[in-house]
Amino acid sequence: MSFTPQLWHAITPLYHSITAHPFIAELTQGTLPQEKFQHYIQQDALYLADFARALAVMAAKAEPTAWVHRYLRFAEGAIVVEKALHGSYFQTFGISEEGVVKSPACFAYTNYLTATCWQQSFAVGVAALLPCFWIYREVGNFIWQQHQPDNPYQAWIDTYAGEEFSAIVDEAIQLTDAVAQVASPETRHQMQEAFLYSSRLEWLFWDSAYRLEQWPV
Ligand SMILES: Cc1ncc(C[n+]2csc(CCO)c2C)c(N)n1
């Protein structure tokens, strides 16, 4: 069995916790309160800025050059595609970025990715970044299959359920398998750990938006 199916197998219960989460259930129905979606979008804008930088760090570390190009394209995709989506949502829902600081969950996730991509090996960074791609595709498809008419969040759903995004996710998965194939057992273990931590943080990110999470102190 190649490596990435094992990764997905390990997070299957966690993935089901995500699809069963009220944030995703209500997003699917189009009944998610606007303030919760606003919280999510504001935090995601902050997340994406750091995520793009983490991808750029990976581009700098990548070998061979073809992989430098891939990570640069991922980074560019994170900036261009996501900014466009956020741009439209910021307008549609009258959201402002002013005075917004990272929530505890966003802070934890962005710092985890930044530290991992800078400090750990390329292979471990690859695994830490993979849930951001893979979980979003699966969640996007999951929601899309239960299509509800007049969902105010349809543009968000379409972005992650589209074929274009799916092709990017396939690239990220294939690259992870290629890296794992030549990695030591110790590195593969670290990759599994990193994939699991990021997956937990994906759950936490949605949960924090649902709770309108703020710093308690
Ligand atoms: C918390 C959080 N995690 C993952 C994504 C998904 N995502 C963001 S950028 C990118 C790659 C290129 O578009 C992907 C898959 C998100 N938006 N927010």
Separate helix tally: 9
**3D shape:** globular
The N- and C-terminal alpha carbons lie at a distance of 47 Å
Query: What is bound: which ligands?
Result: the ligand Cc1ncc(C[n+]2csc(CCO)c2C)c(N)n1
Number of domains: 1
Helical fraction: over 70%
Radius of gyration: 17 Å
As for the CATH topology, it is: Heme Oxygenase, Chain A
Spell out the helices and strands N to C: HHHHHHHHH
For the biggest sheet, the summary is: none
Going by CATH, the architecture would be Up-down Bundle
- Helix and strand composition category: mainly alpha
Name the poorly predicted regions: none
Please give the number of β-strands.
0
Into which percentage range does the β-strand content fall?
under 5%
Q: For the record, what is the CATH homologous superfamily label? A: Heme oxygenase-like
Report the mean per-residue pLDDT as an integer.
94
* Name of the CATH first level: Mainly Alpha
Structure commentary:
This protein is an all-alpha fold. The protein has a single domain, classed as Heme Oxygenase, Chain A (Up-down Bundle). 80% of the residues lie in helices and 0% in strands. The protein is built from 9 helices and no strands. The longest helix has 28 residues. The termini are far apart. The mean pLDDT is 94. Bound molecules: the ligand Cc1ncc(C[n+]2csc(CCO)c2C)c(N)n1. It is an enzyme of class 3 (hydrolase). One of its GO terms (molecular function) is thiaminase activity. One of its GO terms (biological process) is thiamine biosynthetic process. It catalyses: 4-amino-5-aminomethyl-2-methylpyrimidine + H2O = 4-amino-5-hydroxymethyl-2-methylpyrimidine + NH4(+); thiamine + H2O = 5-(2-hydroxyethyl)-4-methylthiazole + 4-amino-5-hydroxymethyl-2-methylpyrimidine + H(+). It comes from Catalinimonas alkaloidigena.
